[in-house]
Specification:
Helix content: 25-40%
CATH topology of the largest domain: Quinone Oxidoreductase, Chain A, domain 1
CATH class of the largest domain: Alpha Beta
Strand content: 25-35%
Distance between the termini: 21 Å
Shape: globular
Oligomer: single chain
CATH architecture of the largest domain: Alpha-Beta Complex
CATH superfamily of the largest domain: Medium-chain alcohol dehydrogenases, catalytic domain
Number of domains: 2
């Protein structure tokens, strides 16, 4: 059996994770085999590792080089620099990636930058699209220093919105000054953002009681799109849905199969053009997975953490 190295769940290891030997992937005809150079971590997948069964392989985002093109002729060619996403298992040396979830990396975009884009970037992009036309409209982003929040602030600004970013701590506000946001509000309580409303669109990453409060900041006819529950991580999805205020939209996916690749290309080109700046707070080797995941769970990382695979 051919094997590769990958990060797997092991309840006996620190942070329940370790690099181990696993069976090499066998791509389907519509999948490209990608040699992974970098992955980024998302809070949702990291939280799943704390309760997943032994042997489960985490990982959504990845970037690397095509080692074997898709047999059906779809997707990038051999040797292409690419980035994309899978449902699980991207934290590995080789990954089979559906070409519908894969896009090329522009020359002036790094593997680390590209790896931050799939889950967080697509979530922010599609949440804002649910909000509709944004030119000169007031937009509030809660949890703005997180991966999704940081992208949402920038994308809303690019669309012509008047953006208010809500962050918990002063040190996390610094990253927004160089992207020219209209307002940066610092506070543990979301009420701190009320005075700049009412808002036409709210992108909420916090959920829970904070979500109930911010919905009262909406303009009549405005939209609130919830993309997570950072303040109540143990809440099940069903309980989260049942607790949502009336009228709140929930982002229930990241687009159709036909749109993901195109949207990834849009995001990468914005980075290449200097219109979108991935916030990478930490870069480390994947051998440091235990330390990095603990930092993410303890909310010591603003923006994205990226691991190099070597």
């Amino acid at each position: 059996m051919n094997t590769i190295r990958a990060i797997v769940v092991d309840p006996n290891e620190e942070a329940r994770l370790k690099v181990d030997e696993v069976e090499a992937p066998h791509p389907a005809s519509s999948e490209a085999l990608v040699r992974v150079f970098a992955v980024s971590l998302n809070l949702g997948e990291v939280r799943t590792t704390t309760r997943a069964n032994a042997g489960w392989r985490p990982g959504w985002d990845l970037s690397g080089v095509v080692e074997q093109p898709a047999a059906d002729g779809s997707g990038p060619p051999l040797g292409a620099r690419v980035f994309g996403m899978v449902h699980s298992g991207s934290w590995a040396e080789l990954v089979s990636v559906p070409t519908a979830f894969l896009s090329g990396i522009p020359e002036n975009v790094t593997f680390a930058q590209a790896a931050t884009l799939p889950v967080a970037g697509l979530t922010a992009l599609h949440a804002l699209e649910k909000g509709g036309f944004l030119l000169k409209r007031k937009v509030l982003v809660t949890g703005a220093s997180g991966g999704v929040g940081h992208f949402a602030c920038q994308l809303a600004k690019q669309a012509g919105a008047i953006v208010t970013a809500l962050v918990r701590r002063e040190e996390r506000a610094a990253c927004f000054h160089n992207i020219g946001l209209h307002r940066i509000v610092v506070g543990e309580n979301v009420v701190a953002a009320q005075s700049f409303g009412p808002y036409d669109v709210i992108i909420d990453t916090l959920g829970g009681k904070s979500l109930n409060i911010v919905t009262t900041f909406l303009e009549k006819g405005g939209s609130c799109i919830n993309v997570g529950a950072a303040t109540e991580p143990e809440m099940t999805l069903q309980a989260r849905l049942e607790s949502l205020p009336v009228g709140v939209l929930v982002l229930d996916g990241i687009g159709s199969l036909t749109s993901v690749s195109n949207d990834l290309e849009r995001l990468a080109q914005m980075v290449a053009d200097g219109l979108l700046q991935p916030q990478i707070d930490l870069e480390a080797s994947w051998t440091e997975i235990a330390e990095v995941t603990q930092s993410l769970l303890n909310r010591r990382i603003a923006g994205k953490a990226v691991l190099s695979i070597s």
